[in-house]
Amino acid sequence: CDWSSDVCSSDLIRKIDGAHLLVSVFAMVMYPFIGRPILKMVLRKDEGQYESFIDERPDFIINTILQSLKP
């Protein structure tokens, strides 16, 4: 944990390299937009279905980050 806070020095979260966390969050947020044409084809989703998939991403991303930080 690179941050200088009480949370990082306690056992409330797992120690993790902030750079890796940042890259992971960036990829989870940006890739569905950058890779839209490929993902639509691979996932076999039309535009409406893909938009629904995108709408689900924020909750998925938050849960994934929280799980990765659990000790």
Describe what you observe in this structure.
- 73% of the residues lie in helices and 0% in strands.
- It has helices spanning 6-9, 18-34, 36-43, 47-69.
- The protein is built from four helices and no strands.
- α2 (18-34) runs antiparallel to α4.
- The relative contact order is 0.16.
- The protein is mainly alpha-helical.
- The protein starts with 5 loop residues before the first helix and ends with a helix.
- The radius of gyration is 16 Å and the shape is elongated.
Which overall shape is indicated by the principal axes computed on the Cα atoms? elongated
Helix content: over 70%
Through-space gap between termini: 12 Å
- Number of helical runs? 4
Major beta sheet, specifics?
none
- Uncertain spans: none
Beta-strand segment tally: 0
Binned strand content: under 5%
H-E order:
HHHH
Structural class: mainly alpha
- Specify Rg, calculated over alpha carbons: 16 Å
Overall residue-averaged pLDDT value: 88
